[in-house]
Amino acid sequence: MNLQLHVGCAQWTHPAWPQPSRDKLRSYASWCNAVESNTTFYATPSRSTVASWAAQTPPDFRFVVKLPQVITHERRLTNVDAELRAFLTAIEPLGPRDHAVWIQLPAAFSPTDLGALAAFLHQAPRDYRYAVEVRHRAFFEEGEAAGNLERVLARADAEWIPFDTGTLFSRRPTSFAERDAWMKKPHVARRTRALTAHPIVRYIGRDSVDETVAGWTYLVDLVVTWLSEGRSPTIFLHTPDNAEALNLARRFHATVAAAVPTLPPLPEPPETEPPTLF
């Protein structure tokens, strides 16, 4: 069995991370083997920009690329054929690195809007894998709503991306970064069910590394189970300010690898030497 676990962060650059001034994505890819592409939410990138992303990463690196907000939030998946075609054309240079097209829907997208999602997925090109993130509480609190969403996703072999904020909301915030995350992140129930062979989970902890690691124990066990079932999961590690996210992603992978010794290792980042006076 060819076991695969990909781990990454919500971004590929951060002031707290050990990175050169140029080729930050190349540097990031020496630490992690996946990344959330959030910048595409704000605008469709040029093909040349995407080609530069591909050139800085190996073929087995995974991008989970977020659809632009004009498609998901402004048009709510309706009458977006031209915008979707333009976006998919732009990301073509990623080739095999394009792991999934990430459809992050606004909190106002409710069970009554599932028809729009079903029509969008039905018409979307089958050359791409799709993964959907919902934030309306009904999908997490009402069994009928969750079941209807799962059926819509199953017809397109699309995955449901959970954003696990349980650790973040486990106690009140103690810093500005945690308070900001409390205001912006969805507070919904934890989901542990994979719909496809390629589950994706977004996990956010707290400022405390110890609390963040303690909170992901269930996720380590879940990933080990998914691997034993032949699934190929991708896990994204967040913290309120993401300063420790890079190290935490590698730590998560190492924790799973301790339970699954046959798991391929992550790349080894180059050693960084401290600056000298001469």
TrEMBL record:
<dbReference type="InterPro" id="IPR036520">
    <property type="entry name" value="UPF0759_sf"/>
</dbReference>
<dbReference type="Pfam" id="PF01904">
    <property type="entry name" value="DUF72"/>
</dbReference>
<dbReference type="InterPro" id="IPR002763">
    <property type="entry name" value="DUF72"/>
</dbReference>
<protein>
    <submittedName>
        <fullName>Uncharacterized protein YecE (DUF72 family)</fullName>
    </submittedName>
</protein>
